[in-house]
Amino acid sequence: MDFPIFHLDFLGNRALIAIIAVIHAIINHALAVGLMPVVAMLEIKGFRLMQTNPELAEKWDSLAYRILFVAFLITTTIGAMTGVGIWFSASLVNPASIASLIRVFFGAWFVEWMVFVTEVVLILLYFLTWKKLKANMVKKFKHVKYGLFLCFFSWITMAIIVSILAFMMDTGNWNNDRTFIYGFVNPLYLPQLLFRTPLAMTMGGMIALFLTLIYTRKDPDFRKSALRSIRKWVLVWGPLAAAGAMLYYYVIPTNLVGNLPVAMGTIEFQSWYSQIIVIVIVAIGLVIGMANWAYFRPNTAPAWLAAVSILLIAGLMGHFERLREFIRKPYVIGEYMYSNGLRVEDYPLLKRDGILKHANFVATKEVTDDNMIEAGRDVFILTCSRCHTANGAVNPIVGKFTVMFGKEPWQTPQLKGYIKNMHSARYFMPPFPGNDRELDALCAFIKELQTNPQPVTGAQDGLGFNKPKPAQSVAAR
Amino acid sequence: MFYSILLQAQTTIVQKDIPLPLPVPEWFLVLILVLMFLVHILFINFMVGGSILTLVYQLLGLRKPDYDKLAYEVAQTITVNKSLAVVMGIAPLLAINTLYTTYFYTANALTGLMWILIIPLVTIAFLLLYAHKFMWHRLENNKLLHISILATSVAIFLFVPLIFLTNVNLMMFPDKWSVVEGFLSALVLPNVFPRYLHFLNACLAASGLLLVWYFGRKDFDFEVKFPSLSRYEIRKNLYTVTFYGSVVQFLVGPIVLITLPTQGLGWNVLTVILTGASIAIVAMVWLWKEITGPVAQFGRHFTKIALTMGVVVLFMGSGRQLYRSNVIDPHRKLVAKKTAEYEKLVKEAQAEALKPKNTETATAAAHPGEAIFQMNCVACHQVNEKLVGPSMVEAAGIYKGNIAGLIGWIKQPGKKREGPAMPAQAHIGDDKIKQVAQWMDGTLNSLC
Predict the structure, then answer these.
(1) Is the pLDDT of residue B437 over 70?
(2) Among all residues of chain B, which has the CA nearest to that of A70?
(3) A308 shares contact with chain B (CB less than 8 Å)
(4) CA pair distance A281, A313, nearest whole angstrom
């Protein structure tokens, strides 16, 4: 309400964050947390053989290096930039909530940053000194140590982020005490970590498997031993990932759904909550099957199938992220702030005075008979646009109302009756914040959208303060 | 002065701040913002300047192959510098987000598309840099392609700073917020381009100096690697790049100052900036001596130059922050005041809402079930007319005398009609469901 509102009217704003965040999470889990230990393991294999069998040692070493090369290319470009991108997109789409989170989690984020700097320095060291530090055992030992440190710091980075994620779902006692330590002692913290760690390790293992299948074509004997090691890795972590998923699966409802003021036994939630079991079984089953196939029949094992199983685990992860997002609604910060960026405690005031009066960057401060549509547009931007587009591809408001009320021109009482009560009808939507006049204006605007489809532009296209006023088409007709 | 602020307040947007206390003392945030930003921008300078120099050397290499090798050597430094530039940027980003929340986010949103495009653009530039570096030998015979890969990422590197500068410029001027229309109109606000020039020169100056050191290291076998080049000549040329990059700042700097809106200029800013500039003169003299001095003594001023340049940068960075707080602080006071007023209103309205209202009891429903209907069902149902779902009168008729069936439906609805399904209402609780059902079966059915 205090910021100019950035809005993408085709894809929707959430899609922007979602795309960036999903790419980042997958790269972080699979390549940074999960793959680094596999690389370190392969390097150590070579290191052990350096004296007895230098030729074989070199094979292990160069496989490890080539795998690291891929990880390095991706993590230091797409991985790093999508990490920054999460900040950028969150501050565009929901500035009030990210700003509040920063104030709560400044300490955690600051520590996270220091760990992250260490991680980046280590990956640079690890990758760039690989060739220099392999002349003898002493140097190589030093290099192996870089690798182990890197594994450790990558994991710590993830461990801190998870606490922030857990906090956003369940603020625990924070609302009374308002200190960030609650993020860490939150009941969802450990289950999330216990789920994400083995999942990341499994993904890392599968990526190593995939690359090994590609890189060792010409050397069947070595291929066999390399695949044996990686198979072992996957066989240890895969089942742990399944166990972690189940743990998390059972913890979510008791800790969240059960605690919510309005229980969420809704149909949507149930239906894809129960899909999780299927996905876990299929994904982990495929991973284990693939690892065995690669080991027993290394020459027939198709690399693409390994890629598919990586995507499936990524899908599993994505499913949990969606669950996390879904459960959070209608809040961005549980019981403190709704996803429209308004605090729960703002509501009585906004209902009394209207939201426009206290908003900035709006074209109108008060609804009058002449500015219904213009004001309604502002109300829409303020109260619905974080989750809905006007006519776009994702969650369009016109489409939603058409499903409910059909194609004939909608009537104000219909719309009004729904919006007034939308929070009790659909718990995941926050209640409508404004006053009655504003509700009228919103309805007028939604009716206008129905008869005269038009995209709703965001602040990035200019605020429209100085633009000619849009034609009052409804009044004219 | 005070009057002018008042006047401004009428035309300028004043927001409310985030109503949570700052997580750490303000001075700490300022410190992080100034110091870590300088570290960040130093690596950015190395990265941008380094890629420009790589491009130049590679073009020279078309004539003289050793320059191509030199370019390869410079390209090695970019990998490290670019990664450090990104991570070092996070701390000042965190600090500016916390300290200047409303200002920064407002500028971001107003230039939103370009702001978010930074992410894919820089990612692409990084990937191209890697392609350029790791395919150097593979593209040996296709120089045109190879050089255009680098040129593309240099072009991106030259563009992205404009986006950042537009943002940090726009954030300082709330009076401009209501008139800008997207990135382009914010870009042409006075001051963005002079600052951009300032930045580009800094890139050349900084990376020149970095490479003077890099090629001067004792364990760097310059003569072996580039037999046809002279270490002294190359380092001297790099010094010259630094020298010109810095001298031009003495011209661009004043332009930056002049184009800055005067509301933030004060003696504190000028003193700091001018002190910085006079220290820079000292560094200039040493640089001149290095460039023109005898070969035998080459390099003896290097440490002094690097240190004084560091000090200069510190002064300039502090001056910049002083200017920013001069401009923003009066406005921040207005914001703080408005936030406090608003919070008071919030508390008042909350207290009001808690008071039992007489009007409510007056219009209270005759049957408790009707009140529950008003709370939970009217979004989709009306008593007499079809809305999303059927009218309540119609629905009640279906379950005449079958309260259990009605309760069953409300808790776990089925799917009968076209259109959307009804979501389960079990969450409102068994008691209330029973009351609604009783109201429907009793009152409504007696209506018909």
Answers:
(1) yes
(2) B130
(3) no
(4) 10
Do B295 and B370 have their domain in common?
Answer: no
Top-confidence residue, B379 or B113: B113
Asked if the structure places residue B344 within a domain, the reply is no
Contact A462 B119 (CB under 8 A): no
pLDDT of residue B4: 40
- Quick check: is B349 in a domain? no
Pairwise CB contact (< 8 Å): B426 & A463: no
Q: Are residues B334 and B373 in the same domain?
A: no
- A389 pairs with which residues across the strands? A396
Q: What is the dihedral of CA A228, A233, A234, A237, to 10 degrees?
A: 160
Short-list A365, A363, A390, A370, CA closest to A476:
A370
CA distance B99 to B27: 10
Separation between Cα atoms, residue B144 and residue B132, nearest integer Å: 12
What domain count does chain B have?
2
Q: Domain for residue B195, yes or no?
A: yes
And the tokens for B254?
A: 């004043």
B409 and B260 share one domain: no
Indicate the residue of B84, B353, B379 with minimum beta-carbon distance to A418: B379
- Which residues span the domain enclosing B328? 2-339
8 Å CB contact of A404 and B419 = yes
Torsion of CA B389, B392, B397, B402, to 10 degrees: 90
pLDDT tens digit string along A339-394? 899 999 999 999 999 999 999 888 888 999 999 999 999 999 999 998 899 988 88
Q: In terms of domains, do B335 and B392 share one?
A: no
Q: Assess whether B298 and B402 both reside in one domain.
A: no
- Residue A338's SS3 state is strand
B205 with B277, same domain: the answer is yes
- Please tell me the distance from the alpha carbon of residue A312 to that of residue A238, in angstroms, as a whole number: 13
Buried b (16+ CB within 10 A) or exposed e, A298-335: beebebebbbebbebbbebbbbbbebbbebbbbbbbbe
Is the per-residue pLDDT at A474 higher than 70?
no
Cα A24 from Cα A13, distance rounded (Å): 17
Residue A179, min C-alpha distance to chain B (Å): 10
- Exposed/middle/buried for A474, CB within 10 Å: 0-12, 13-18, 19+? middle
CA distances from A142 to A57, A147, A435, B47 (A): 17, 9, 67, 29
Helical H runs in A129-255? 137-169, 174-177, 181-184, 189-215, 220-252
Mean per-residue pLDDT of chain A: 85
Which residue of A3, A77, A343 is in closest CB contact with B105? A3
The verdict on B106 and B184 lying in the same domain is: yes
Q: Is A360 on the interface with B (CB under 8 A)?
A: yes
Task: Look at the block and give the residue holding tokens 């296709």.
Answer: B142
In sign, the C-alpha dihedral spanning B99, B103, B109, B113 is: negative
Q: Which of B368, B173, B382 is nearest to B260 (CA)?
A: B173
Give CA torsion, residues B319, B322, B323, B326, to 10 deg.
Answer: -160
On whether residue B258 sits in a domain, the answer given is: yes
CA A450, A451, A453 angle in degrees (round to 5)?
Answer: 65
Best probe of the A interface among B119, B415, B428, by most A CBs < 10 A, is B119
Tell me: do B180 and B62 sit in the same domain: yes
DSSP secondary structure letter of residue A337:
E
One-letter identity of residue A313? I
